[in-house]
From TrEMBL:
Protein name as it appears in the record: Cytochrome P450
Cofactor(s) essential for the protein: heme
Family to which the UniProt record says this protein belongs: Belongs to the cytochrome P450 family.
InterPro entries, per database record: Cyt_P450, Cyt_P450_CS, Cyt_P450_E_grp-I, Cyt_P450_sf, Cytochrome_P450_fung
Matches recorded under Gene3D superfamilies: Cytochrome P450
Amino acid sequence: MADAGRHQSQGHLTKQPRSPVLHSPILQVVLSTSLHTVTPGPPNPRFRELKRLFHTFIGPRACDAKDLQTVEEEESIKLLDKLLDTPHEFMAHTRDSTAANRNDQISLVKIVQDAMDGFSLASEPGWWVDSFPLLRHLPWAPFLSAAKWMRHDLELLYKVPFDYVKQERRKGTSKRSFISTFLDERQGEETPEDEDIINAAAASLYSGGAETTVASLDSYFLAMTLFPHIQHKAQSTLDTYLHSLPPTNQKFPAISDRPHLPYLEALMYEILRWNPSVPLGLPHVATQDDEYRGYTIRKGTVVWANIWSILQDEEVFPNPTGFRPERYLDEHGHIAKGSKQVLAVKTAFGFGRRICPGLYLAENSVFLAIAMFLFSLDITPHGDGPPEVEYDGFISHPRPFKCKIRPRSPEVAQLIRDTVQTLNKQIDYYQATSMFQARL
């Protein structure tokens, strides 16, 4: 097992990465179900179909679509409403907000959390069976019971959302989603192989995005608690921009404002860098003998790209423990798109063919949430003093901490309340109309 930990060298290794599960015995057990057919990494038809689905639904063009951006913006406003009601539960609210599933009728948030907790535990280095694969053939091996429990949680993640969407489609109350779009493509003629692929894709899309986005949003609250001058500067930048706009119906910041708010985009990049949500990434494997900084890497060696180390490299990010959005700006205050800092921070999403397919959606979601928070909320330290910077987990979240969250003004609080009330009325009307049409 090797660890690649410098930005300048990370692109040289694992030229043709393969699926990590083939080289992790405990993950083989966790993923060896009829619902998740373990296949080699690219190139293979299953992998190409998954990439096509991701590109179609959450690729750059799809993420620019107004209907998708509208959903993200509406969900962000609902998150603000929850933060006004019970601000001390902000970590629970950020997690719930990623479901975008009204009232979470299928307990999807819990299903995802259980499945990702198990997958994260199985992915962590240190399992004896990963070093001694023959142990997996011992029926009394202690890791087997843990792996079967993890596998059960993963099966729920695969089956429940798909079954729920099919049920809603039969009732005529289904809304556009990743799964429903795929089923529309197949026009009722999907095969078991199709269902296997869409289950895998939907589970990967939701679980990966949910956990990593939550981690980034929680990091935002921690950073603003510790660095209030950054919050004040970002708020001033946002206020100046919004006040410069001609009178329109737009009251909240939107994803489409991103090109005009480089400081907020830089703030997003620094959130991704400061404490990356997946600090070790996913394991790759060397497909041929290689050499790295004087070390020989044999074919078949599992390689972990140490993303945390790359994003803490002092040669690229001076004073890496500091929080400085200015790292990504040029002398004119614009995003320095070709700079080594902007290029390096993209490693937060992984590498190569297996780079996170949801990176465009993730950037949109995190940017929008940051803009909404800055527009609506003031975050200050709790009376107990500033929190410690402590993170845990394979998908790395801040440990629970306290901060004060208040609306920036009574007017903005009322705007949030009124908007959510209007959105809820629209939802009630849509559901009633859909149910009526389904009966015709």
